[in-house]
Amino acid sequence: MSDTTAKVKAGLAKRYARERRFKFFGQASIILSLTFLSILLISIFSNGLPAFTQTYIKLDVDLNAETLGVTTASSEKELRAANYTGVLKDTMNTRFPGVKGRTQKKALRQIISGNAPYRLQDMIMAEPSLIGTTQSIWFLADDDIDTFFKGNIDRTLPEDDRRIKDYQLAWLDDLQTNGDVDKRFNTVLFTSGDSREPEQAGILGALMGSLYTMLVTLSLSFPIAVAAAIYLEEFAPKNNRWVDFIEVNINNLAAVPSIVFGLLGLAVFIHFFGVPRSTPLVGGLVLSLMTLPTIIIASRAALKAVPPSIREAALGMGASKVQVVFHHTLPLAMPGILTGTMIGMAQALGETAPLLMIGMIAFIIDIPGGVTDPAAALPVQIYLWSDSPERAFTEKTSAAIIVLLFFLILMNFLAVLLRKRFERRW
User: What pTM was estimated for this model as a whole?
Assistant: First the structure.
């Protein structure tokens, strides 16, 4: 074997070794990324899935007219002001007659959620004939009680190290033995707004706020971005300093931190134009500014991907430049434009920083009915709940993240579906 052949084989061996190392590092990086992603998802789902169930406690409530201070003929105002708290106190004392002392009686009443009197009020207001009867009613359990039944409070710990006392454990055991404890799907999570009580808190207000914000964002960003992309790609003069300046700034805006758009919205929309704070309207305006560069860049790429022969054939048939664009180029580029739009909207849906800057961090209980009503957004709601020390809010935070991930995955799936549905191969 000659020296040349030996050198070639040695060089090949080194090259193959480098290729194997490169392949190994690539596979290792993918495995490591998937591992971290799996850990993240497992953590989110393990903490969040329990929030989709809620503990209920059944009580036999004597709707005594004397205790309520009303009659079946009472007016709506009198029924609204009835002594529902007193009825619940009597019910709890009857259910557990051996409870003595102010501290234990207060702890007994705290087994059920603080909205129990309002639950009774709604029942009586809807059906006054219930006055004077005894009803078996399922009430939401307090967040600590719910946490205990979900196995997140260790009863073997010393009493001083857990939030539930020994005498409360005895009451809960009695309720469970008699079949007065039940776990159900947590409809409150999807039918209520925010609350300072974890068992009463829901994401409906944040969902509606995000929906209205996304509607404003889409209504503004899509037509403006597509129009800008059409002009820059089809009508703008080439090698023009003004056009080049615009293109450079659009590309730069796509890389600007999102909080900068929040500062811009705070200075321009709120302070200068007087748009109400903490509303989907101002949130949509800010997110539109952030989404515009993404949609413009995607739309220009989609327009550029249409073969020149399409334009030339249309022009050869006598079509004007405008007809070529709107009758041929734009319809063929629409799958790519829609894909870019969906990706931009998905990015906007998950943004938190710009919304914090325009005041959408306010504690909002009511469900917004329009774009000018005060509202929170789902990412901001997650941020607010994550800052709470209550264990039940930890579950709610992870549950809200699961819902947000679901919508993000759905939007990306729709982007792929639209592209596959309308895409044409040349």
Answer: 0.87
